[in-house]
Amino acid sequence: MSSCVLKLSKIQLKKLQEHYQNDLLKKNIPYSEFSAKKNGVSITAYTSGKVVFQGKDAEAEASKWGSIAETPKKKSGTTLPAGFAQLSVIGSDEVGNGSYFGPLCVCAAYAEKEHLAELNRIGVKDSKMLTDPQIRQIAEILKELIPYKLLVVTPKKYNEIQPKYNAVHMKVALHNQAISLLLAQISPQKPEAILIDQFTPPANYQKYVKSEVRQVKEPIYFTTKGEQYHLAVAAASIISRASFLEELDQASQALGIKVPSGAGAPSDKAAAALLKRGGIQLLSNYAKLHFANTEKAQKLL
Ligand code: MG
């Protein structure tokens, strides 16, 4: 369990209390203004202005409010600047990488500080905490609200690229391209920072990105669970996921069977059905062939 301590002004403390008004606890802690619990993080605000955040995601919750006295050191070695959650940030994330069926969707989204309150209001958060219908609904609003660049690699395209580019290299190229296009789109505006939801060690990213023609020159931060550190990553994740779901739906409709997400036994079964119907030719339009599921499906036949 981690904990973080912030020192806030009286005005900030009031804002904090308003923000957590639905999560307040009826605890009488000496010298405290209030205590609350949200997303598994306990928050205790003292009359002195000291605020203690405790719990697994204490850092992420605290970073919404200001500079943490001790900036968290990430496992990856990346350190985000103080008050990172409040900056104007381009965040980037991908969906579909671990699913046999469906595309690989990469999105970069720009969340300006002026938009952060609105993003909170429409429910932008870690997509793992949202249902699929919520994700679709929020994605629609997001696409109207903030600048973003979405790249969708269909399974057909993926299978063409994959022998040349391994999966990590492909993702590096896509994140770089999405960010580069988004930077061009929002120019002359510039984000205060760029954050990629980390999928490979930063050194590995730098190695692969060197071969890209339009390499993003701005410094990039990497962190796992990026959606907890900035709403831009959460927004990118929601837009990618909605697109992935949409593509799976379309595949299901075209094929007349439920095309599953993931890479488990249901994927093997669906793949076997497609192989029977149209061979590897048909399957290659819907699935990432290099996954072990292809072999398992062939054995099922
Ligand atoms: Mg991710």
UniProtKB/TrEMBL annotation:
The main place the protein resides is cytoplasm
One short Pfam name that applies is: RNase_HII
Its needed co-factors are:
Mn(2+); Mg(2+)
How and how many cofactors are bound, per the record note? Manganese or magnesium. Binds 1 divalent metal ion per monomer in the absence of substrate. May bind a second metal ion after substrate binding.
SUPFAM superfamilies named among the record's database cross-references: Ribonuclease H-like
Q: Which UniProt keywords apply?
A: Cytoplasm, Endonuclease, Hydrolase, Magnesium, Metal-binding, Nuclease
The UniProt record lists the keyword Calcium: no
Where can this protein be found?
Answer: Cytoplasm
Supply one GO molecular-function term. Answer: RNA-DNA hybrid ribonuclease activity
What does the UniProt record say this protein does?
Answer: Endonuclease that specifically degrades the RNA of RNA-DNA hybrids.
Q: What family, per the record?
A: Belongs to the RNase HII family. RnhC subfamily.
Q: Which NCBIfam families match?
A: rnhC
Q: What is this protein called?
A: Ribonuclease HIII
Give the originating organism: Candidatus Enterococcus moelleringii
